[in-house]
């Protein structure tokens, strides 16, 4: 069952990223920061949905590292935006 969960999670995440890209192209606002934040939100939702209740598979540890790196990059983006606002 865990192999199926990983496959579904990858499929749903790919569909989410394609949807984000489609709407960004449709609205003609290609912003990498917005894309990154929305993809991180999708990854967080999927990680919560595929996490087991009683055991933690090895791939969940790797997703945890990826999430930690994503949150660090998100904090950097937020700090840059705050400094941008304060400088204006």
Describe this structure in words.
- With 88 residues, the chain is mainly alpha-helical.
- The chain has one domain.
- Helices cover 84% and strands 0% of the residues.
- It has helices spanning 2-26, 32-50, 58-87.
- Helix 1 (2-26) packs antiparallel against helix 2 and helix 2 runs antiparallel to helix 3.
- The mean pLDDT is 89.
Distance N to C terminus? 53 Å
- Give the biggest beta sheet: none
Continuous helix count = 3
Number of strands: 0
User: What structural class do helix, strand and pairing data support?
Assistant: mainly alpha
As residue ranges, the low-confidence spans are none
Task: Provide the residue-averaged pLDDT.
Answer: 89
Summarize the structure.
By secondary structure, the chain is mainly α. Helices cover 84% and strands 0% of the residues. The radius of gyration is 16 Å and the shape is flat.
